Amino acid sequence: MTITDKGIYCAEANVYIDPWKPVDKALITHAHSDHARWGHKQYISQHSSVPIIRHRLKGANVRGVKFGEKININGVQFSFHPAGHIIGSAQIRVEHKGRVEVASGDYKLEADGISEEIEIVKCHHFITESTFGLPIFRWRPQSEVFSDINEWWKKNKEEGKISFITAYALGKAQRLIQNVDSKIGTIYTHGSIEIVNNLFRDQGINIPTTRHLTSEISQKQLIGNLVIAPSSALGSSWGKKIKPASIAITSGWMTMRGNRRRRGADRGFILSDHADWDGLNKVIDATGASEVTVTHGYTEAFARHLSERGFKAYTATTEYTGEQLIENETPVEA
Description:
The chain has helices at about 50-55, 140-160, 170-180, 190-200, 220, 235-240, 260, 275-285, 300-310, and strands spanning about 1-5, 10, 15, 25, 40-45, 60-65, 70-75, 75-80, 90-95, 100-105, 125-130, 160-165, 185-190, 210, 225-230, 245-250, 265-270, 290-295, 310-315. The protein is an alpha/beta fold. The chain has 2 domains: about 1-135 and about 275-315, Metallo-beta-lactamase, Chain A; about 140-270, Rossmann fold. Residues about 330-334 have low confidence and may be disordered.
């Protein structure tokens, strides 16, 4: 595989992985908008991502495949393997004439209770992200983070406040819903999140009970309960109506405390759907790859670190964005 001006390209099969410019055939690691772009003639993704891609890219021609299912294109064998990033996220394994390469998309090691757990795929060449590819980024176990979130929610309830927490509409929101203590109160969701929840529920994926926050629900009803919304809702007229509220942000970027202050939040919880420094290194080591291409994040620093460890490490310019502090995945819709 090579990196072209359109995306990750396999010339033998004439297909692209997560291309950012229109192509005939695109293999998609997951449905986040920096990886699943508009304009391709055909999309191939893991089954759980299909309804999300069809919803976000109206009229898209999408074919779904199972994890581990082998696809032969012009003599090249492709298969999708769990990446642990979000529901349906995949690493794409490419095999041709005995050589194996893997495009990992985005990934994380820690099991989150709702996404398929990452599978280590042995290969010669591994294409990795490095969103949090610096030693300062080391995640606490999610059980500890969710314990902190639950205590924050309980305290707000005692003080007669609404707990307003931001999360990506696709991925982080479902992880929060799965792992917070719903016995504390009702979980209300922004419309963009509830749409994604229902697209998963329609597939038989068990997303815990939530309530869509519509204009018919009064602020009084929200007191003591939890509201989950994308970060883009914070400055909107929709978000400004939610008060009195304590505002929290969930992101790996909360490692840098100034980010919370700049967004005007009361709390910042360090919770990411991307691998931290240790996770990146563990996965790369476990693949057995001797060659590593670093596509987005702290690319130069992380590639230099890998080179010092004995890998043939390269950087590549792509249009992937990794985790952002302000979500631009979906328009703000109530």
